[in-house]
Design brief:
With 175 residues, the protein is an alpha+beta fold. The chain has one domain (2-140). It contains five helices and seven strands. A seven-stranded antiparallel β-sheet has the order 2-3-4-1-5-6-7, with helices on both faces. Strand 5 (111-114) and strand 6 (119-121) form a beta hairpin.
Length: 175
């Protein structure tokens, strides 16, 4: 699953009809459903039917977590909510989620977080990001590798010596 997050002030959350109208006015070919309440909806959101859509969740945001890093926390600032857009890899789902997330960020002066490259995108740059135009991220989160780097420690060196001894012994016995 691919995820976009929009950090915003909950008081600025638009009505579904306004959000859908601004998506169309923004030039996006996406039909956002207008029969849901953005402040309380949780789950799949069809655009316009079940063949295209994304999962939408709105949650409180009180303190930055390690997933967004220090630079992301500075970019998010005092915003108190996060809207999450999750979708499969289908191009139609990506188009719908991208248009909805970028428009929401632009409408609410939010900060959009694209988890794939780790870019935090300002409200001013969000529509350019959605249209695959040039944009400048306000912050970038660099993920740390989840596994440790291999190091030659004493136990590893000992194992390598045992393996080398066994290979030499087998070679000597076969002669």
């Amino acid at each position: 699953m691919i995820t976009y997050n929009v950090f915003l002030d909950r008081a600025r959350l638009p009505a579904a009809a306004d959000w859908a109208r601004l998506i169309r006015e923004g030039g996006f070919d996406v039909e956002l459903s207008t029969d849901f309440e953005p402040a309380t909806h949780s789950g799949y959101l069809p655009c316009p039917d079940d063949l295209t859509g994304f999962e939408y969740y709105l949650e409180s945001f009180t303190a930055p977590t390690f997933e967004i890093g220090a630079a992301g926390a500075r970019a998010v600032g005092p915003r108190n909510s996060v809207a999450t857009f999750r979708f499969s890899g289908r191009p139609s789902d990506r188009t719908a989620a991208t248009a909805a997330a970028a428009t929401l960020a632009a409408m609410t002066d939010g900060v959009l977080f694209d988890t794939e490259p780790g870019h935090f995108v300002s409200a001013d740059e969000a529509l350019a990001w959605a249209r695959n135009e040039r944009y400048r991220p306000v912050a970038t989160y660099h993920r740390r590798a989840m596994r440790r780097k291999a190091r030659l420690t004493a136990p590893i060196i000992l194992r390598l010596l045992v393996i080398a001894f066994l290979v030499a012994a087998i070679y000597w016995l076969r002669r």
